Amino acid sequence: MVRPYLNILMIMIINSEYMPKKSRKTRQKEQLEKNISNMADLFSADELLAEARKNGLGVGIATIYRFLKGLSTEHKLHRYRCNNRNVYSKSIRGHGHFTCQKCGKTHHLKITDLGFLSKLVNGKICHFQIDVVGLCKKCSES
Ligand SMILES: [Zn+2]
Ligand SMILES: [Zn+2]
Ligand SMILES: [Zn+2]
Q1: Alpha-carbon dihedral 118, 124, 127, 130, rounded to 10 degrees
Q2: CA 142 to ligand 3 center in whole angstroms
Q3: Mean pLDDT of 2-8
Q4: What is the pLDDT of residues 104-138, one digit of tens each?
Q5: What is the pLDDT of residues 31-70, one digit of tens each?
Q6: Over 60: is that where the pLDDT of 18 sits?
Q7: Does domain 94-137 have CATH number 3.30.1490.190?
Q8: In degrees, to the nearest 5, what angle opens at C-alpha 105 toward C-alphas 39 and 40?
Q9: Residue 50 C-alpha to ligand 2 middle, in angstroms?
Q10: What's the CA-to-centroid distance between 134 and ligand 1, angstroms?
Q11: How far apart are CA 12 and CA 49, in angstroms?
């Protein structure tokens, strides 16, 4: 009984070659997804655009924005706000800033432990962003 099943499978695979060609949009999306795997843990739309163009993909920034927005909505990418722009990550689940009220400098906080949050959230956490405001060490000493 194994053989007929395999034959059917083979026919299906062969037939798929003759299926209507994937739309330009679908192919573009697949190629962009491939490009994402080359990106750093945290990347911006501009960086993805540069990578895509480097790999010969003729896309514009509007396409990149749409693509990233789509993936974020599907929860395939986590999106953060950093330096007045959006940054994206496949793997990083938290983004934190500590901004000094006096000098205005922003430092990144590396938050890896979600323990303190999961106690507060009644549900499953996808990702989070924290903005902490205060007085930096340098400013508090002067
Ligand atoms: Zn997320
Ligand atoms: Zn940031
Ligand atoms: Zn400061």
Answers
A1: -30
A2: 10
A3: 61
A4: 999 999 887 777 788 899 998 889 999 999 999 99
A5: 999 999 999 999 999 999 999 999 999 999 999 999 999 9
A6: no
A7: yes
A8: 5
A9: 20
A10: 27
A11: 36
User: How many Å lie between the centroid of ligand 1 and the Cα of residue 89?
Assistant: 9
Q: Whole-angstrom Cα distance, residue 99 to residue 79?
A: 20
Tokens of 4: 């007929």
Counting every residue written for the chain, the total comes to 142
Two structure tokens written together for 96? 């934190």
Q: Which CATH number fits domain 24-89: 1.10.10.10, 1.10.287.470, 1.10.4030.10, 3.40.30.10?
A: 1.10.10.10
Ligand nearest to the CA of 141: 3
Q: Name the one residue in this structure whose structure tokens are 């190629």.
A: 31
Which pair of tokens denotes residue 55?
Answer: 């790999």
Compute the distance from residue 120 Cα to the ligand 2 centre, in Å.
Answer: 23
Structure tokens at 10: 């083979």
Q: What is the pTM for the complete model shown?
A: 0.77
The DSSP bridge partners found for residue 82 are: 85
